[in-house]
Amino acid sequence: MARRTSLPVTFVVPTIAILLVLSMVPTLYAIVIALQNRELSTPDYSWVWLSNFVDLFLDRRFLNAVWVSVKWEIVTVVATMVVAIGLGVLMFEVASPRLRNVYCLLFIIPVLLPRVSAAFVWKFAYHPLYGIATYPYRLITGGLIFDPLSKPGTALFAVASVDVWQWGLFFAVIVLKLLETLPPQPIEAARLDHAKRWQIHAYVTLPMLKAPLISLMFVKMIESLRSFDLIYVMTRGGPGVATETLDMYAFSQGFIESGKVSYASAMAVLMMIATVITFTMLWKRAQA
Amino acid sequence: MKPVRLAASLGAAFVLSATVSTIALAQAPVCSAPVKVLAQPRDGLTLLEDSKAEFEKLAGAGFQIDYLNENDRRAKSRADASTVGNYNVYYVDEANVALFASSKWIVPLTDYYPADYDYADFDPGRQKVATYDGKVWFAPLTGGGDLMVYRKDVLEAAGIQPPKTLDELIADVPKLTNPDKGMYGIALRGARGSGANVWRWMPFFKAYGGQWFDGDKPVFNSDAAVKATETYLKLFKDSAPGTQTGSWDESTGAFLSGQVAILVESTPLSGMAVDPKTSQVVGKIGFLPPPSPLPGGGYGHGLAIAAKANADDASKKCAGLFIAWATSKENEKRRLDAHQFGELNRTSILSSKEFADIYGADLGQALAETGKVTAVNFWQDPRWPDLGDRWGIILEELVTGTRTDIKGGLNELEAYATELAKKK
Q1: What number is the ipTM of this complex?
Q2: Is residue A55 less than 8 Å (CB to CB) from chain B?
Q3: Which residue in the set B82, B99, B192 is minimally distant from A238, CB to CB?
Q4: Residue B311 in contact with residue B48, Cβ under 8 Å?
Q5: CATH annotation of A35-287
Q6: CATH of the domain at B234
């Protein structure tokens, strides 16, 4: 009996140990560095303890980056879910099975593009003089110039639209496939009760899909935290600091501007703490 | 055997063996592994890759160049040099050579640059930029100062003479802007960075008498900086669309595609402007030095020997040989034959008949005149990229309207500079 129960331990313990080493070593190292004043240009350093964290809260760019990150997270997650549910339901209601397959194929293509490629494609599309995305504005206004990536009020939304283009369409395919897996009886029962189409989805199908939709939302939340490449290529955090997220500011401080790796690590540690707390709270609320 | 014959035989054998050893040593490959280079895209380097076999024959191993655009190249090389040291050769520039040299991330070049390749033949201005703390650190791939390139046809149609002074430039630029016809008076750089928007702003700062530091005391927060910024922002109202968050590519791209009347930019633009492959304004342009008192922004980019990846002398010699070969007269002649104006750095090439035949006397004259006003505008210190990039962010905010208080921005930079000065 004892032999039989030791087998799972034999397999699980090494795996867990490797995972712990892989995840904990960099994390602990980041925490240690955050308590020092290391810079790339010199091997000398000393312990400054919480000084980097205090400095962060006096740094206007850090506070701005926190706000931009929160905006980015809300805008991209909400817009992606709205587009995904809207398009998924639309395809379910309107398109024939064959047409649905064609749409699915088309909608998957954007997410298959590497982020950097997508960012470059859209950066050119948003060019004020030649861009295909700004062409309608030039056409309607008789040639007035609109440069969405250089306006503080529009830059974040312009970049977010690319993120939604990639993930919203992909999630729409998933939502469609989820809808197709639902049992037909509750939908038919609602129809017999003369429920309108939107009522069927609002009160029957989407509530039935609550668990997978919440999972999708969490996936998107995690993915949105890692949009560095997209923002970096399209705006580099600009105009000014209008699209400078926390990861971008940390990279900038660590490797582009100052070489302050300890300062950058302090930001990473704060991001990690904030992310763990936020996700834990949201997960518990979603489960409740 | 007589003693004399024995001695002669031994002597002959010694000479023969010494000769054979020398030949063997001479033929021993200098490089035991391919040279890894981290660079930013340059036509000259792309052309160099066509001659890879030549270097393999010379050194016994090839080379591999990884390309990243300017800002990424700076970030990656800084991270690589200070940590793992994967690259044997770094592409460095005037803005970061002081940092790389003082951090001992690169080694003095001339210790490993073969004398046959004639380092002294490089343009003296570029040699000066490559020198820090009395030592030469890189061999130039590009460099120069600023030129004013203007559209003769557009200025003639507007009845405007090419501006000779900064005041004339400020007055003329709005008159030349006509968005309905897709024409803009000027193109500037708005994107953040010590080598981007700050680079174009600095001639205005210097023209108004600005200075960066007095010893370790920052003195840039002055009327000169305010006036320079006001002028820069005023001119930006007539700058081509896309330049507000753009840099060299966007401003020169706008000029070369025919949307800009006047452009004051780094000298490689002039070569691109007369090349039908890259320019739609060939035959319509003129060249002059920057309007007085704007100084040209002296700059130079080149290849340096990495310290960490080349731990032993043999590796350093290999990297030195690669740099010498890559910047040799033969390779520079190939670049001239390929009409790569911005990639020419040797006086023997710049003063050659072939150069004059290709680019004409006007450009040669303008280059000679602009050389007289070319200056080093940035703070020559390892901390410059840090300070310059910080000002770049504030300047980008001002250009795009995220902030409007010039003095507030300068105060913020001064506080940062004061902290920075303490670090030396």
Answers
A1: 0.82
A2: no
A3: B192
A4: no
A5: 1.10.3720.10
A6: 3.40.190.10
